[in-house]
User: Fold Sulfotransferase from Buddleja alternifolia.
Amino acid sequence: FVTEVEEGKDEVRELIQTLEREINWDGTSLIKYVGFWFPVRLFDTGFTDRPPQDLDSAAILPGPDNGLSLFKPILSAQKYFKAKDTDIILSTLPKSGTTWLIPLTFCIVNRHTYPIAQSPLLTSSPHTIVPFLELNLYWEQTNPDLENIPSPRIFSTHMPFNVLPDSIRESECKILYMCRNPLDHFISYRQFLLKNKIEKDAKPLDIDETFDMFCQGIQLYGPFWEHVLGYWNAHLKNPEKVLFLKYEDLKMETTLYIKKIAEFIGFPFSLEEEEQGLIEEISNFCSFENISNLEANKKGKFMGIVENSSFFRKGEIGDWKNYLTPEMAERVKELMESKLEDLV
Ligand code: A3P
Assistant:
């Protein structure tokens, strides 16, 4: 199937036309593939600063509604990505703190190569240092050469657990999954979409409609519950492989979780390092206040269109209270209890 997608065959276009469709919160279109919602198009063809690499995939994407945009990189990743036992995969739903998990993991793993004062994170955005499988690597090339990246390689992804390339599930590589309170996730995501108008002519839905869609599970890479549940079940099945993290826990006990992550991925801190305050140093360096104020994160764009600065908004727990009513919160609480009973 992936070869047919790569070639943009008519039958693939036809198949995609048969998939269930919905309007996303920002007015763009979504299609449902293996139980999850993916964008019909990732980019508006009208963008002039489209990254050059995108022209390659644009060549097979002539129509405005062709449905291949994110399929191609996801299917290419499924076909070509060969996980190594030493890999570390950072997986999240968008707006769960990916941009925080990246520097934390990078600093833990590379602390001997790059002392904080020489960290590449001082001059490059987290998403440049740790690329997304489907949004960077397999978006830019069908089969990128990732063999020569020094181990341990760190990649990020928003793919649901069942959509991951087989070799990630089958190898000994480690997966760090981070989720977030659904209400804060919802607000963070909505604000992000409002700020980055992916399609300039699309009309964002109002907050009540958007919230209703969220509760129905309609969102990019969603349903929220299924995404979280996929990784939660994988963690229960194999806790040595999948570490299940919550944004709120990391916020409240950052140093404890830095230690946990380090142990899980096989880079534990020695007593001496702990006594030297290395964990606190990493925690402070990766804090929202510090990292959001670095020049590299105030300028530049991700994938040529999304402002790097929009990955940093407030970085707080409970901001939803400024936007949602207690009734809305109650509705989500009931959903949480029915869908994720083991987790709440
Ligand atoms: P808010 O919109 O609530 O502020 P992602 O990286 O998965 O897209 O998630 C973005 C969310 O993580 C945003 O939440 C952003 O502010 C927050 N974030 C980014 N960097 C952070 C950091 N270093 N510490 C805490 N939160 C951070």
